[in-house]
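Predict the 3D structure for this chain.
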Amino acid sequence: MAKKTAATSTDALSLSLTSRSARSGGVGRPAGQGVPGLSPLVRDTLQAQAYNKLREALMTGLIMPGRNLTLRATAEVMGTSPMPVRDAVRRLEIEHALVARSNRTLGVPEMTYASLIELREVRVALEGLAAEKAALLITADELDEVDRRYREMAAAAAVGDHGAYLRANWAFHSGVYRASRSELLVSIIEPTWMRIGPYVRLMLPDRASLIDSLGNHLRALEALRRHDPATARQAISRDIWESAEGLAKLLSARETPTGKRGAAQGSRPLLRQPAKRARSPR
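Done. Predicted structure below.
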């Protein structure tokens, strides 16, 4: 059973991390009088790499709901010992990106209708603001990068390649938000993507939904080119709202008792499109 779990975990998390065949040992010697010796931070470096790889896997949907991960299998995929992975996982548990399960495995937190609605509202506020700021500050090089990511998304959507689409999708959004020049905003946005990333495949389940999602991304890209903050914010907000619509309906139906669905859904609003905002003066 342990071997089967490890194999499943390895398949679920196809990550690559360069393994280190040689590691420094002992404390570095002082380079000269008055200069303290420096020890190699091998373990800390591996822990940081493991943490960053797992974060990326969450944000790009590589770790999916219902999949079980084990420390040992994940460490084997990364080419390291379980210790750095254990430290990384502890950080992700504190950030509510992973949860421990009773069978000594790890997984993503279960999404409920209420948690999806709350997450959507937070993302609309934060990511909309970041897009608005980016429209005023983005450089030509950054625009080229966002444009390249959009073209990668379009190519992946055309052939229904979810993996390539989700990687390009995160890179597109990340490029926009980093162009806002707000480290604070980015540091708050990224944890929300660790929560929603594993569910994006459920939000965009087929080739048609991938293609449909391109429209808002193209509108956001064009708004960035025109340095139009209001339209950039609206396009990103609509992307968040529309992509969550299908999953919200699935969760609502799953949580509503049979025979009471109509009344229950009538008492909680389905996702409403964000109101159009007047274009800000330029």
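The chain has two domains: 2-12+42-107, 113-267.
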